[in-house]
Structures
1.
Amino acid sequence: MDLNIHESWKPYLKDEFNKPYFENLMTFVKSEYQHQTCYPPSSEVFQAFNACHFNNIKVVIIGQDPYHGVGQANGLCFSVQDGIAHPPSLKNIFKELETDINKATPESGNLISWAEQGVLLLNATLTVRAHEAGSHQKQGWETFTDSVIKIISEKQNDVVFLLWGGFAKKKSKLIDSTKHTILTSGHPSPLSANRGYWFGNKHFSKANQILERKGFRAINW
């Protein structure tokens, strides 16, 4: 597994890359990609870091696992490749965007334009076997991505963290809330959204209001 990660991250993550757990993780991932069908494509495993550079982080959104269907995952949480049907959670994200900021649902579910504006779309686990949800959990990815969250918390200021659902909310303990803003809500999955825990959170307009108040440019969601 090639460590295809943008230079801006390397000074902050180089110690992590040299730890035994990370070396074991890379051995595991390399073997999985050689012997199984895995997602996202190997060139896009670190896409979240390549599309959103360290010194450009304004917002962090935390997901759990990549999509495990054919051609869906592109290395950004909740995002899919161009031309792929929108999964249920992404449909609900777009519905909330429409009611919150009057943004029409886009044709493509590829969220790379968010990432390029400073939204880190970080899955806790960066790889998965085809059609086997959670199959690469507890191999070291969570240790790595928890470290990423801690490093952002320590080295950056005024980042807006959007924590959707119980899994993401647990990451709040890694974040210094005196330096950063944490917004929480239910998960956009139908199970949570249809119970009233997602719709109406207005996280997109709230994040932009916070960014503008701090003197940053708002995100064009």
Note: Strands lie at 38-39, 59-63, 119-123, 128-129, 160-164, 181-185.
2.
Amino acid sequence: MPEQNERPLLLQVGPLLPALQDALNSRHEVLRLWEAPDQAALLAARGRDVVALVTSGVHGATRELMSTLPGLQAVFSFGVGYDSIDIAAARDLGVVVSNTPGVLDDCVADTAFALLIDVARGISAADRFVRRGDWRQGKFPLTSRLAGKTCGIVGLGNIGKSIARRAEAFGMEVAYHGRQPQPDVPYRYHAELEDLAKAADFLVLSLPGGPATDKLVDARILAALGPHGYLINIARGSVVDEPALVAALQAGSLGGAGLDVFAEEPEVPAALLALDNVVLTPHLGSGTHETRQAMADLVLANVERYFAEGRLVTPV
């Protein structure tokens, strides 16, 4: 930890909220890596003096980058997901990592449930129907109710529990899948993901990304969800076999999907754009003014506590 009277040198990997950037600049010396015309030259010239990385779930932190910073002590990330940060490398290098859990649970759960309602009731499709003038030619097709249906949640962490509460408020049954059952929740547990998919009308993905969950939802799981089932993904695009999802939707073997995340963002498969039973949003799960400010505040709190006390508020 730097001496109290020093201004620690931070390396910011990519752009963040302007207010957070201003706060960091006012208290620390900050190198803005993404703006450097020659990043390798910047790292060669100043990398040995960097003591912390400031990044996000989008920009992450690779082993290669961290290894170029011999004095690196900490990584501060804006976002709850940390699959883009090489945690194993950080441990090997003796670098601590923080993220921003808790403060974004409600907004991400709101996004999940908005997608669920939209794809079930055809809200976006109905909007297009009216705008095209199709209402003059006939009525919009009937859609699916929520009450009495089963909401299957994959990953019953804080966000998953927030989604479950919303589902209950709409009269839905809740079931879940995870590494192990949670004794303090009243929902039915399925040890096998395929069994949950068979039981669910809506399969909501709320689990971490990374190698352990890569393409966890594959053709087999989509087939179990079936032609009257809907997939909702507010987790990571990597947890779904995207070509298998496209194939299932095109074949009609899956009822529909609500997707906030994709395998190669911001690229979205052209086939999905053509489907009226798919709702697409641009990874906006936590995208409200209030939540993004709370995330920024928590990043700053982690930075300040680390340099004052050598501890993190929310360590990974």
Note: The radius of gyration is 22 Å.
3.
Amino acid sequence: MSRLRLIDRSGQRYPADQPRWRGDDGGPLVFEQLPGIGREEIDAAINSQWRYRAALPNPLAHIEPVTLGEGRTPLLTRTFDGIDVGLKVESMNPTGSFKDRGVAVMVTALRHQGIDRVLEDSSGNGGSSVAAYCAAARIEAHILVPAATSPNKIVQSRWHGAHIELVSGSRQDVADAAVGRADTTFYASHNWHPYFLQGIKLIAYEIWEDLGFRAPAAVLVPAGAGSLVLGCAAGFGELRRAGAIDRVPRILVSQPQNCCPVVTAIAQGRDEVTDSQWSTTVAEGTAIAKPVRDREVLQAIRDTGGTAVAVPEDELLPAVSELARSGLFIEPTSAQVVPALRQLRAAGEISAADTVVAVLTGSGLKAGHLLTAI
């Protein structure tokens, strides 16, 4: 991992082979730009996201991965208001969410670096994913979760052998509590760790292959911390540098109206989100008031010519129902892309002529406590 270096917001560089989750400036880390790969470098014998392992930083392209078969999720077509949309069904990943992509790569790197005990904070999906992959890697996992987290997500993590601690307060309170313990246990936060984004970026390679080695006109993702925004920006950016595509798709973002700091910052032309008080939302996976990588997320949206929209709370459960009646049982966090698509169509941001891919990030089975009213 020494061939590439990590960079913090101040521009300082760090060896990538040393366990580190943030820069000395207190901000997040990113990798130096990678060149990307073309179709000839895909390992077609591997039926998981590791078929694109040549796009990962060395030595991840060569060492044995910690894998549960993540990736290679379906891209299904559904029609909304006359627009055919490709739905990337990430609920088909091993633990039921897209987080498996990033956690698989992060845990592979941590195992290679000799880490045997980690701390994570999560509203649910990230924690259950870390629990599963740490179990596969024989790494001891300690996970702090909000006390209001879906019981299904907590049960899953416990069965994987993780040590779970419920923390009262907001999602931000949980993150602050975890950072406060980072001196005693390695903090493997999926929101902070740079290797997590290296796994998330592989969804871009997969969408490209799904579409016959073409890029869509736009990718629509729900955003809380914004890892899918950054992963798509990185992956499609690499494909462009490799000459595999001519342009990076527009990145379109959906957030619940009850917690939409990225939407607000885009509308106000700000370079970072501002501290605000938000209401609770059933789209719990996107209820993050202060994303760690807010500056980078906002810049990625703008660099691709994208935008962000807020979905009213009363449209979230109907969206779950609409998708379920097409055969897809998706949690409210993911289902918000359906009303977002309609908003974007009405605003002229997308048209029937565009190839649009929307990412369904997690399974409805994760949110049973929110969906029992039907």
Note: The chain has two domains: 75-97+198-372, 116-187.
